[in-house]
């Protein structure tokens, strides 16, 4: 079905107003200012070399907390500068240069031991190596001096970009806060729309219970990454009233994630009941309407506007249930589901009220402990020291990448156009990723993007534009390449090709535009082929890391169950119990997100090396369902803590906690307990939900949680045991 033009335009505007584009433009503007300044003061050659230095320093430049931004940016130029200089010295000795490239690439890619923070540093270091190869060869007695001079200009541009990045990050901090929060809200709205698709009374007995679960799992994993990025920026020392409101909105978004997850409880049962079709239809409509209001709120944040007033939809959630109806009947379950959707409704209302300045945020917890929720910014030695084992994925990738780059460089020396050897190496660097799935995705987009980029670059070079116009093209290409790296890599591939070709021309390594076009295409195909082939060399198949990820998920679920069912928050005089629970909740979601992403990548690997995917996916589903059950229990307790006596709920909560821990840790046998036949599921006289007697509902949720834990543990063992036997 063709997407309406209005929706396409709205999506395009959201991208243009996003932090991705703002960050890309900021980086490109820094490149323009630095290269122009050096050009005016020291000449065109110096300006071109300084531009390369700035380009190499840009990859690690992302929206980040103000604290630690300088240390985050510094490693890239410090590693890049010596590599650039040494390559300059070895220009006249291509095979000796090849012997340098392999170990240099290996050690550069070891930076991926620091995870997402380290990957841009590795890319920056190798880009310095590649761009240095594009500089014309310095010959004769002046070669050493020329290499030193060019490297000085390169280092000047690279090091000048660091304070520029720190300054712009600070100046745009307020804007970044709103943009990353808007990104979270749009993602949650999309997840809510996907969830709403399940509220259709079409499920027949025997039909797959949740055909959308795969999409929901990936959405949840993406949302977990976005929420962490938002935490890093939005929760950092919110000083002004606006920053505090944005922080309060992020906390609402975190609560909404729990409530949205809990909205799937009892849904499968209700979809099988024809008489509940009307209730499900109304609930479906409310979710879609709330998603639309969240999108409007996100758009208002992106545009710097005050959002429209919240439209109250509570009346549509009111479901009539006969007073004499008893037991966990479909009508009572539908009513409980409406109550849970009502929690989502209230969180959206609070989001809008905070954005309009009509409500004050509660930031007591944030003020005390925001440092515990943001990503680390230091570069400790522990990740690198723990890398030296054969099974370590970053170590294997570093070896794989170094070998691929070495083969690519050697092959380039055998080609008639070996003066452009760096093109093959560059393609390998950007295409070859840590997993086969990522490499295949990059390969296709890189080849297509390169072909388009070559055509655009050829047009630019054939036009014989003046130096300032070429510099403007480089600036625009840099902005697009950096802005869309994480959003749409095809755009990045097109822009990066234009950037590389035009910048090489500015460095004096150009040639006939038509001939360059053909060479570039050939080198791209060769580089992509080498990257594809080496994806199977020293492979880091997902099955190798799945056992550790499963163990992490189980441990996180155990900790979350313990903290969620604790009575600390009902009796607390400070924020420590809530802090412990929030940290446990974050780890539960994050560990699941990593596992979901690994599973998605495993689907693209050869069938012979895949882990047991069926039980792995069921385990993930049951993990989220367990989180939902415990969220429902916690919501019941917190919403009615003013009317509850701790002694009334302490015993069942403690007993459930002990059983859940025993099951999840393997201390208990994963079979149904005898208590399941003790009448817990039998119809009981239930009070209205507004009353304080929660015993029947509480016991039901706890029992369902225990059963989910047993299924989860059994499925985890079905995944891990065969992998450990290999």
In short:
The protein is mostly helical and 726 residues long. It has 28 helices and no strands. The longest helix has 31 residues, at 695-725.
Structure report:
With 726 residues, the chain is mainly alpha-helical. The protein is built from 28 helices and no strands. α6 packs antiparallel against α17, α10 packs antiparallel against α11 and α13 packs parallel to α14. 71% of the residues lie in helices and 0% in strands. The two termini are 46 Å apart. About 4% of the residues have low confidence. The longest helix has 31 residues. It is globular and about 95 Å long. It folds into three domains: 309 residues, no CATH class; 150 residues, no CATH class; 168 residues.
Q: Rounded to an integer, what's the Rg over CA atoms?
A: 28 Å
How much strand? under 5%
In this structure, how is the largest beta sheet organized? none
Extended strand count: 0
Layout of helices and strands:
Blueprint: H1 5-16, H2 19-42, H3 44-57, H4 69-73, H5 75-89, H6 94-109, H7 118-134, H8 143-171, H9 173-196, H10 213-234, H11 241-262, H12 267-271, H13 277-303, H14 330-355, H15 364-369, H16 382-385, H17 393-412, H18 422-431, H19 436-462, H20 467-483, H21 489-506, H22 513-534, H23 542-564, H24 568-571, H25 576-602, H26 613-639, H27 646-665, H28 695-725
């Amino acid at each position: 079905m063709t997407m309406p033009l209005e929706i396409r335009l709205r999506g395009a505007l959201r991208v243009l107003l996003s932090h991705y584009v703002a960050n890309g433009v900021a980086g490109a503007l820094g490149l323009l200012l630095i290269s122009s300044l050096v050009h005016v003061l020291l000449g065109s050659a110096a300006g071109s070399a300084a531009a390369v230095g700035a380009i190499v320093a840009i990859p690690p430049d992302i929206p980040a907390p103000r604290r630690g931004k300088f240390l985050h940016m510094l490693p890239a130029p410090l590693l890049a500068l010596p590599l650039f200089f040494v390559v300059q010295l070895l220009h006249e000795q291509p095979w000796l240069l090849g012997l340098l490239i392999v170990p240099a690439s290996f050690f550069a890619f070891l930076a991926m031991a620091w995870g997402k923070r380290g990957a841009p540093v590795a890319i920056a270091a190798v880009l310095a190596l590649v761009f240095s190869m594009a500089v014309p060869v310095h010959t004769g007695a002046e070669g050493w001096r020329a290499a030193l001079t060019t490297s000085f200009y390169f280092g000047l541009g690279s090091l000048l970009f660091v304070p520029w990045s720190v300054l712009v990050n600070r100046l745009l901090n307020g804007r970044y806060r709103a943009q990353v929060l808007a990104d979270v809200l749009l993602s949650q709205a999309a997840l809510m729309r996907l969830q709403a698709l399940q509220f259709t009374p079409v499920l027949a007995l025997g039909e797959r219970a949740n055909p959308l679960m795969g999409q929901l799992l990936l959405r949840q994993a993406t949302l977990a990454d976005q929420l962490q990025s938002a935490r890093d920026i939005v929760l950092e020392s919110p000083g002004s009233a606006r920053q505090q409101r944005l922080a309060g909105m992020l906390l609402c978004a975190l609560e909404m994630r729990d409530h949205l997850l809990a909205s799937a409880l009892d849904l499968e049962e209700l979809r099988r009941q024809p008489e509940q079709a009307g209730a499900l239809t109304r609930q479906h409509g409310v979710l879609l309407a709330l998603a639309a209001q969240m999108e409007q709120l996100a758009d208002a944040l992106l545009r710097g506007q005050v959002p429209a007033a919240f439209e109250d939809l509570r009346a549509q959630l009111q479901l009539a249930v006969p007073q004499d109806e008893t037991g966990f009947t479909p009508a009572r379950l539908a009513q409980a589901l409406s109550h849970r959707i009502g929690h989502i409704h209230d969180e959206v209302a609070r989001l809008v009220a905070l954005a309009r300045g009509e409500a004050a945020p509660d930031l007591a917890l944030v003020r005390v402990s925001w440092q515990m929720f943001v990503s680390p910014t230091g570069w400790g030695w522990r990740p690198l020291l723990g890398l030296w084992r054969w099974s370590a994925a970053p170590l294997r990738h570093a070896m794989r990448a170094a070998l691929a780059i070495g083969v690519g460089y050697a092959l380039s020396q055998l080609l008639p156009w070996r003066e452009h050897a760096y093109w093959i190496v560059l393609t390998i660097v950007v295409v070859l990723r840590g997993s086969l799935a990522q490499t295949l995705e990059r390969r296709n987009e890189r080849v297509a993007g390169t072909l388009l980029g070559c055509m655009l670059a050829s047009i630019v070079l054939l036009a014989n534009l003046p130096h300032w116009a070429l510099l403007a093209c480089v600036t625009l290409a840099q902005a697009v390449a950096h802005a869309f790296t994480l959003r749409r890599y095809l755009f990045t591939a097109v822009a990066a090709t234009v950037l590389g070709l035009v910048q090489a021309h500015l460095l004096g390594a150009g040639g006939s535009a038509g001939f360059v076009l053909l060479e570039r295409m050939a080198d791209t195909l060769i580089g992509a082929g080498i990257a594809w082939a080496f994806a199977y060399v020293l492979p880091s198949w997902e099955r190798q890391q799945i056992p550790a990820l499963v163990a992490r998920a189980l441990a996180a679920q155990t900790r979350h169950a313990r903290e969620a069912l604790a009575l600390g928050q009902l009796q607390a005089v400070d924020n420590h119990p809530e802090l412990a629970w929030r940290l446990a909740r974050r780890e539960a979601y994050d560990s699941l997100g990593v596992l979901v992403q690994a599973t998605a990548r495993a689907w693209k690997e050869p069938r012979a090396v895949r882990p047991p995917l069926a039980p792995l996916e069921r385990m993930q589903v049951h993990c989220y369902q367990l989180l939902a059950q415990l969220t429902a229990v916690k919501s019941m307790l917190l919403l009615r803590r003013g009317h509850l006596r701790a002694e009334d709920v302490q015993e069942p909560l403690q007993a459930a906690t002990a059983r859940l821990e025993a099951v999840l840790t393997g201390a208990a046998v994963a079979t149904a307990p005898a208590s399941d036949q003790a009448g817990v599921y039998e119809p009981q006289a239930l009070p209205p939900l507004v009353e304080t007697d929660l015993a029947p509902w509480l016991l039901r949720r706890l029992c369902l949680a225990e059963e989910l834990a047993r299924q989860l543990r059994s499925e985890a063992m079905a995944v891990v045991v065969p992998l450990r036997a290999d």
